[in-house]
Amino acid sequence: MNFYTDGSWIDLGNKQLLTSGKDMTIIMWVRPTSVNGFHAILTKWEVENKPTGLDWWFGIYGGEIHFTNNATGCGSYCPNKMSNGLGIPSNEWTMIGVVITNNTVYYIKNGKIHDQDNGNYSFTHSSAKIRFGRQNGVVIGNESWYRGSLDEACVFNRALSEDELMILYTNKQ
């Protein structure tokens, strides 16, 4: 999938992808053209429907993986909901992801767990739609467009082990 301009995105509709109390893994290959600012990769997030509609957000901010839920911890760019020290590069293919288990998010880069965040990772299910490449259903000026390429986007209904993550990375799947 290629997203090279504002306005490039895919709408998957209103689905419940992440469920409270269930282990999950999101992984994909990314090749962002920029890592500065917010870049929404896979979201169920609609600011125009506040206070509901802020289910979860997965993307890149400042070269780090950013994952948040229910707007918990957001404000000042949610610094406590991001990886630290991953340095996702621009214009280079990188496998990134999160493993969510036991109220902990593990941040993945190139098949390895590099960082983690312990917090409240329960998930609501609003009428917000799941989207690749942007947040929000209407243009309100903060869509956080993703620019670049995505490949092998996968969501698993369980927490993958480090060995499984490395196999996916090694096999480029």
Task: Provide structural commentary.
The mean pLDDT is 83. This protein has one helix at residues 162-170, and strands at 2-3, 10-13, 24-32, 38-45, 54-61, 64-69, 94-101, 104-109, 112-118, 130-132, 148-156. A six-stranded antiparallel β-sheet has the order 1-11-3-7-8-9. 5% of the residues lie in helices and 40% in strands. By secondary structure, the protein is mostly beta strands. The protein has one domain: Jelly Rolls (Sandwich). The protein is built from one helix and eleven strands. The longest helix has 9 residues, at 162-170. A hairpin with an 8-residue loop joins strand 4 (38-45) and strand 5.
Terminal CA distance: 15 Å
Lateral arrangement of strands in the main beta sheet: 1-11-3-7-8-9
Average pLDDT over all residues: 83
Q: Please describe the biggest sheet, giving its number of strands, its sense, and whether it closes into a barrel.
A: 6 strands, antiparallel
With helices defined by DSSP (H or I, 4 residues minimum), what is the helix count? 1
User: What is the CATH first-level class name?
Assistant: Mainly Beta
> What's the helix-strand series?
EEEEEEEEEEEH
Shape estimate: globular
- Beta-strand percent range: 35-45%
CATH architecture type: Sandwich
Instruction: Please state the CA-atom Rg, rounded to the nearest Å.
Output: 15 Å
Oligomeric grouping of the chains? single chain
The total of beta strands comes to 11
Helical/strand content category: mainly beta
Q: What is the domain total for the residues?
A: 1
| Overall helicity | under 10%
Output the CATH topology: Jelly Rolls
Name the poorly predicted regions. Answer: none
